[in-house]
Specification:
Distance between the termini: 31 Å
Strand content: 25-35%
CATH superfamily of the largest domain: CinA-like
Number of helices: 13
Order of helices and strands: EHHEHEHEEEEEEHEEHEHEHEHHHEEEHH
Strand order of the largest sheet: 2-1-3-8-7-6
CATH topology of the largest domain: Maf protein
Shape: globular
Radius of gyration: 24 Å
Number of strands: 17
Structural class: alpha/beta
Length: about 375
């Protein structure tokens, strides 16, 4: 069931780290909301806005700031011809179906509405809504989006599945599969896996899949990062259980650190530069030697907005992956976007290469 997310309060809207935390918690319960709407408690037509949004939604999750929570409660109670009463030290509508401290669930016109009080730097209260749609998401590694659509269309028609695809990076398609009324999602996924045994990853979270696969195979990984500045390490360690597979990271921004810590040859810098295939190969070799890991990733590039040249414009990035047995892939990329997006794309390209060099582990 699609969910509409409403966030009320300017203090929440401007707090990016807290918003990211809210998004991650919501995804665990209702996946990605159908739409996200920001409102302010001082809006002249807040009552009418909430009424309209709730009536046009399948189910609604309202996250209210500390100073907006009681105002929202009064509006919700009025809409539902209800009154507020104190339960669990929280003022909530008396008709609430479920409630806990700073969270309650009501029925309004046969629709579920869950209201939470969100306080910065505190744990989000209990979310009562759940996701009930018959859908799933998966990845196909090594296929572009156009090829993905062409190859999956016959299967989708056979099993009455609606597909929505996107390209995480070139060579990595991410697909949402929704079953129609008589669709068979389970058989569709089995057929996709049979058709693409060395490309299909069913886990919606690719990082969780990587960590779990390494853990199951008793393998470890380490990273040597330049232009991504530790982002790959951060993404890996965001996954619970990563301490069992992640040995560490070297963020080697300067050439001197690449030379001293990773053993990159001085002649490599002189003849090819830090942003080069040879530099990545030596970074991979150096970090594997120093960590004794089974796999290694490396990045070096120009994320911008400054630092580019005619031969190596902004967005020029080299990424590489290597296994302990010597299998190695290094690619030159020409990425577009702002600095943050170029860095993020570089990370996902590195993970894509890891899946290729470790196909026996990850597929």
């Amino acid at each position: 069931m699609a969910t509409t997310l409403i966030i009320i309060g300017k203090s929440l809207k401007i707090n990016r780290p807290f918003l990211e935390y809210i998004d991650s918690e919501i995804t665990l319960h209702v996946k990605t909301p159908h739409q996200k709407i920001f409102l302010d408690k001082n809006e002249n037509h807040l009552f009418e806005a909430l009424e309209k949004i709730i009536n046009n939604s399948n189910q609604t999750l309202i996250i209210a700031s500390d100073d907006s929570f009681n105002i929202v409660g009064k509006i919700i109670a009025t809409l539902n011809e209800d009154v507020l009463e104190l339960k669990n030290d929280t003022l909530i509508p008396s008709k609430s179906k479920e409630y806990s401290n700073n969270s309650y669930l009501i029925d309004y016109n046969s629709k579920k509405v869950n209201i939470l009080r969100a306080k910065e730097n505190e744990k989000l209260p209990q979310i009562f809504l759940t996701y009930t749609d018959s859908s799933t998401k998966f990845s196909l590694i090594g296929l572009d989006e156009d090829s993905t659509k062409i190859l999956l269309a016959p299967l989708a028609d056979t099993y009455e599945i609606k597909l929505t695809s996107t390209s995480i990076v070139e060579g990595w398609s991410y697909i949402e599969a929704n079953a129609y009324k008589y669709g068979d999602l389970e058989q569709f996924l089995k057929s996709v896996k049979s058709l693409f045994p060395d490309k299909f990853i069913e886990n919606e979270d690719i990082l969780t899949h990587i960590v779990n696969s390494l853990k199951n195979a008793n393998k470890t990984i380490t990273v040597a990062e330049s232009c991504t500045g530790g982002a790959i390490a951060s993404m890996i360690t965001s996954i619970s259980g990563s301490s069992e597979v992640f040995n560490g990271s070297i963020v080697s921004y300067s050439n001197s650190i690449k030379k001293a810590w990773l053993g990159v040859d001085e002649n490599t810098f002189k003849n090819y530069g830090a942003v080069s295939e040879l530099c990545i190969r030596e970074m991979l070799e150096g970090v594997l030697k120093r960590s004794s890991s089974d796999f290694a990733l490396a990045t070096s590039g120009i994320a911008g907005p400054n630092g580019g040249s005619e031969s190596k414009p902004v967005g020029t990035v080299f990424v590489g992956a290597r296994s302990k047995n010597g299998e190695i892939i290094v690619e030159r990329l020409l990425l577009q976007g702002n600095r943050e997006y170029i860095q993020k794309q570089s990370c996902y390209h590195a993970f894509r290469l890891l899946l290729h060099v470790g196909k026996d582990v990850f597929f």
